[in-house]
Amino acid sequence: MRRYGKNPDEDDIRIRPNRKGNRPRTHTRPKHEDAVEGFVLTVDRGRITCLVEDRTVVAMKARELGRKSVVVGDRVAIVGDLTGDKDTLARIVRVEPRRSVLRRTADDDDPFERVVVANADQLAIVTALADPEPRPRMIDRCLVAAYDAGLDPLLVLTKSDLAPADQLLASYRPLGVPYLVTSREELESGAATELVRKHLEDKVTAFVGHSGVGKTTLVNTLVPEERRRTTGHVNAVTGRGRHTTTSALALPLTGVRGWVIDTPGVRSFGLNHVDPSRVILAFPDLEPGTEACPRGCSHDEPECALDQWVADGHADPARLDSLRRLLATRERREGD
Fold first, then answer.
1. How high is the mean pLDDT of the chain?
2. Is the peptide bond prior to 132 cis by the omega test (within 30 degrees of 0)?
3. Which of 86, 89, 120, 164 is surrounded by the most beta carbons within 10 Å?
4. pLDDT band for position 239 (50/70/90)?
5. What pLDDT score was predicted for residue 102?
6. Which residues make beta-bridge pairs with 80?
7. Rounded CA gap, 94 and 40, in Å?
8. Beta partners for 55?
9. Which residues pair with 155 in a beta bridge?
């Protein structure tokens, strides 16, 4: 066993590292008063592309943000190299408070929320009338997510040249959801562009939908100078398209003020995060009637006061049926 004297000043002595670090830690964080505001356009493998004034800047998340996520639509504070030149990298030091957050879970049993976009005003739910066949349960789930997030829903039906829209629209008419119906020819020729753009002006609109429904084709007609690759194949067996949009991307509308956020195609929209009490807020004609409901009422039980509220003529029975259908989506799988 080797022993050292009183002055063991040799090179081979092992010094235990300071577990608390070599620098004294402090809870004081820099204020970054010189930070500039940016708008997050897309997030890809830790690199965050932001719009700063009239140029795009690539940034990374600062360590002091910890696990706080940065998503498309966020307003952020950025420091560092803001020139936007090639191979430069800025730093996001703060995420400003969000005025809206669209979330989803992988399924209804998943406890982990995924933020889809932040600060959107409107959710455009894009579905094809055929090829692939429409999935009303998926539409219902997106509506619930929109109401929970405080977003205005917009139903966009594509491929009307393959199937009529009347039957599908009839089930959503009591909800009063605005809608658009387009054909492939109208999209490809640009004839539908102006009609769609009027519903998006002065708003930040997130587009969601299955792969193959024409979502990205629609976005390309609205922002032709930023064309994204569209799906070229819909599986004849499953009726599903191949994912071609792999990350959310915010794009400025051409010709008018406003933004569209194209999101990857989704095959499920879990609602484990949704508080049913928030969904009722999207039904102002029914919400006052819940004051007489028992505590924790699911609004679909014998003691629910909404039945009497409707019976007294305060609201259309079809509205109550629609509310209960939407609330029940958390209990059903999307294919049921």
1. 84
2. yes
3. 120
4. very low
5. 94
6. 90
7. 12
8. 52
9. 125, 179
**Which of 236, 191, 185 has the alpha carbon at shortest distance from 214?**
185
- Please name the residues in contact with 333: beta carbons below 8 A apart, sequence gap of 6 or more: 108, 137
Cβ 283 vs Cβ 319: under 8 Å: yes
Amino acid at 264: P
E strands, 236-277, are 249-252, 259-262
Could you give the angle at the alpha carbon of 248 between the alpha carbons of 156 and 272, nearest 5°?
75
- For residue 142, the one-letter residue type is C
90: exposed, middle or buried (C-beta count within 10 Å: 0-12, 13-18, 19+)?
buried
Helix (H) or strand (E) holding 93: strand 90-95
Reduced to 3 states, what is the DSSP secondary structure of residue 168?
A: helix
* Tokens standing for residue 63: 């360590």
Instruction: Give the pLDDT band of residue 238 (cuts 50, 70, 90).
Output: very low
Q: Distance between alpha carbon 61 and the CA centroid of its chain, in Å?
A: 20
The residue written with tokens 């994204």 in the block is 228
Name the DSSP class of 231: P
> Among 115, 179, 184, 186, which Cα is nearest to 153's?
179
Longest distance between any two alpha carbons in the chain, whole Å: 96
Render pLDDT for 160-203 as a digit per residue (tens, 0 to 9). 999 999 999 998 999 999 999 999 888 777 788 888 999 999 99
For 32, the 3-state DSSP assignment is coil
Could you report the per-residue pLDDT of 254-301, keeping only the tens digit for each? 889 999 999 987 767 888 878 777 888 889 999 999 999 998 888 988
Half-sphere exposure of 229 (CA within 13 A, CB side): 9
Strand partners, 206: 123, 261
Residue 81 pairs with which residues in a beta bridge? none
Residues 6+ apart with CB under 8 A from 70: 40, 43, 48, 61, 76, 92, 95
AA identity, residue 114: R
Is residue 50 within 8 A of residue 59, CB to CB? The reply is: yes
Q: Report yes or no: 172 and 155 within 8 Å, Cβ to Cβ.
A: yes
The DSSP call for residue 186 is H
Helix, strand, coil: what percent of the chain each, to 5? 25, 25, 50
